[in-house]
Amino acid sequence: MTIIELLAARLAAYGVRRFFGIPGGDCSLDLIEAAAKHGIEFVVTRTESAAAMMAATTAQLTGTPGVLMTTRGPGLANAVNGIAAASLDRAPLLVLADGHEPNQGFASHQRFDQAAVLRPLVKAESMLASADPAAEIEALIAAACTPPQGPVHVELIGQRIRAPAPPAGAMAAPRAVAAQDPAAARAVLGASRRPVIIAGLQAQGAPAALRRLARAWGAPVLSTYMAKGAFPDGDPLAVGPFIAGAAEDALIRSADAILLFGADPIEFLPQPWRFAQPTVMLTTHGFDRVFTDWSATLIGDLADSAGVLEGCVAPGGWSAAEIAAARAAMRAAARTGATGSGIAPHELVEAVAAAAPAGARIAVDAGAHMLPVMALWQAEEPRGALISRGLATMGSALPAAIAACLAEPERPVIAFTGDGGLMMGPAELATAVQAGCRNLVVVVFNDAAMAMIEVKQRRRQLPARGMTYGQTDFATVAQGFGCRGLHARTPAQLGPALREAFAANGPVLVDVAIDREAYATMLPALRG
Ligand SMILES: Cc1ncc(C[n+]2csc(CCOP(=O)(O)OP(=O)(O)O)c2C)c(N)n1
Known about the structure:
Bound molecules: thiamine diphosphate
Largest sheet: 6 strands, parallel
Radius of gyration: 24 Å
Strand content: 15-25%
Structural class: alpha/beta
Helix content: 25-40%
Mean pLDDT: 94
Distance between the termini: 60 Å
């Protein structure tokens, strides 16, 4: 067995079923072959960055490591944003990139220090050059999968990976997570009658413990964007998204303690923590940067930590009516600003929700449209809503949605994207067609602008410069890629277009003309 075959065998043993990328003419070809022999399918994408996002989403949905393949030089450079997303969105990702042969020291074509480029983004790097590549592969996978999960970089060198693999040695043990003294956390919560729970991205791994704790306390739950669905939006205790903004402010201020359940500050806006109440942080791992000094922190398994705290608070501190009112206020804020001319952003979200089949999963891009989607869409299951929030990169919704379609082909998936975000990777529509994403509907908030930044420009009373795009007909663009494309230009066209999209054998793109004026009122109502 060669080293590349060993790598493919280990990936298969970890449950990897597909990997994503754009090949080069060197080690990529060995990898595609070795993977195929182990039943691992290669999905060819149109950009490497999107491939990284697809691989990362696959990891988040399947619990197996994501695998990205690139060629050297431009291939790796083009993947950087997707790798950064895996890093800051905490997804385990193996980056398998061609390197340079040792006997090619003279060559400078396509050459730069690839390891140095990726070093700030990856948790480990390897050239599989040690005497025990089997142990190296195990250690790399363990590094990617150990919280905080993230990318690792493997440089594939032809001479090396085509050589026979030496016999395996002992496996590297994964790092243990330190246990903490829970007394301080119990003291804070023992003194609380009205705690509010803010679920963070790690809650996706412990949804049952979160539900149990919230019900035991009768406490309202806010969820960060990456936690959406871990606590069902339809639960009477669910209030809506935590965006560190105006919409949830009154509720949090009326609490007497805050529990951060698996929150990761990677999702917190770069502003000082605004709340004075004692705050307990539950996290699976420590963080490189100190966001603030929490009153107490428990590091370890979230279910264990929740179990320690469950008896601290008696239910009854919150009334069902006040939780329902907070939830209604949040939803009302997301519905503000409609001018009555054209399709308002919230009308589109609600029309999609009305037309979508039950159990649809969503993927959401970065931009102003994200706010009404996250506030109004009801996600009832963990990972029911996919979003990049640590990196918060545009161009992520379509790749995430494609990966979701491949991971669960029968489940409907909706990609919500702005026109700006889609323009960062429209060619992935061709990937969706080629990969046979039958149940994919891409909904474009086509407002011919980068509305999110435009609102900020206006709020700073700066002249309107550089925020608008010319009109693009995305339905026609989609058709060019072999994808069905539909339009909705008036409120009356919306329902029929969406019903047609969901009835079709996809992928389908629905290009919706949006009246972006609403954002000028809605963004302050939600974010402050
Ligand atoms: C790759 C990347 N570039 C720039 C940004 C900064 N940014 C955040 S939202 C946004 C505008 C998005 O525009 P669009 O996709 O049209 O969505 P809209 O805000 O109009 O809903 C920009 C430029 C980003 N998050 N990611």
